[in-house]
Amino acid sequence: MGQLEGKTAVVTGGSTGIGLATAARLAAEGAHVFITGRRKTALDAAVETIGSARATAVPGDISNLADLDRLYDAVRARGQGLDVLFANAARASFATLEQTTEEHIDQIFGVNVRGTLFTVQKALPLLNDGASVILNSSVRADDGPAAFGAYAASKAAIRSFTRTWAGELKDRNIRVNAISPGTIDTPGLDDVAATGDTPITKAQWAAGVPLGRIGRPEEVAAVVAFLASGQSSFILGANLYVDGGENQI
């Protein structure tokens, strides 16, 4: 039996990258996982990868409150509440201070900050005693690469949410923690690499990581599974770095 046998989990942004790897890991640990994302075809493929007995896809955008309601209606209909919430969905686009537009700010903060807040708020009535909420921040909340201003600020907000919500929900025995992935080999990294006039190769990214390579989505998923399980029962309000030492050494 896995560490999450009989549990119910939600993973937002669960169709690719870290979200898909995490959904697959939580399912392998015994949970039934609800995954959501904007692209139905990608969600359907994710369910096929994980297995329909362990995963349910609910298409939607976390910045749309009606879509969040549909997600949690599906969880409620299962009748077992919610034990694990991985608020992973995020938007990434990049602009320097000079280039930043109102639309850019609204898109980044509308998903990463507003969307994450309502993802957790709307889950509150369903969260079981002892549930675990994990928020996906980023090492970019700590450093200052050019053109990452709005994205980095949105991820710093996620770290702040973690502390506040951990304090607010501890009396319900709900643990809130965050992870901060570093450079991880996902489709999103390919998009970042192509940003700007000079594309960045994965070898160049790897050169900045003390372990000498970029991370794998499965390595992040393992940390989320740890925070979701009873193995992390004395961890609250923390931010676990999964970055190969990128921002540690």
Q: Which helices and strands, and how do they pair?
A:
Elements: E1 8-12, H1 17-28, E2 32-36, H2 40-50, E3 55-57, H3 65-78, E4 82-87, H4 102-121, E5 127-136, H5 149-169, E6 175-181, H6 187-193, H7 202-207, H8 217-228, E7 239-242
Parallel strand pairs: 1-2, 1-4, 2-3, 4-5, 5-6, 6-7
Helix pairs in contact: 1-8, 4-5
In total, the number of domains comes to 1
Class based on secondary structure composition and strand pairing = alpha/beta
Q: What is the CATH architecture descriptor?
A: 3-Layer(aba) Sandwich
User: Which fold does the CATH topology refer to?
Assistant: Rossmann fold
Our Rg estimate from Cα atoms comes to 17 Å
Strand content: 15-25%
Sketch the major β-sheet: 7 strands, parallel
Overall average pLDDT: 95
Number of strands: 7
Query: Span between N and C termini?
Result: 37 Å
Estimate percent helicity. Answer: 40-55%
Give the helices and strands as they follow along the chain: EHEHEHEHEHEHHHE
Low-pLDDT ranges:
none
Strand order of the largest sheet: 3-2-1-4-5-6-7
Give the CATH superfamily.
NAD(P)-binding Rossmann-like Domain
Task: Specify the overall morphology.
Answer: globular
If helices are DSSP runs of H or I spanning 4 or more residues, what is the number of helices?
Answer: 8
CATH class: Alpha Beta
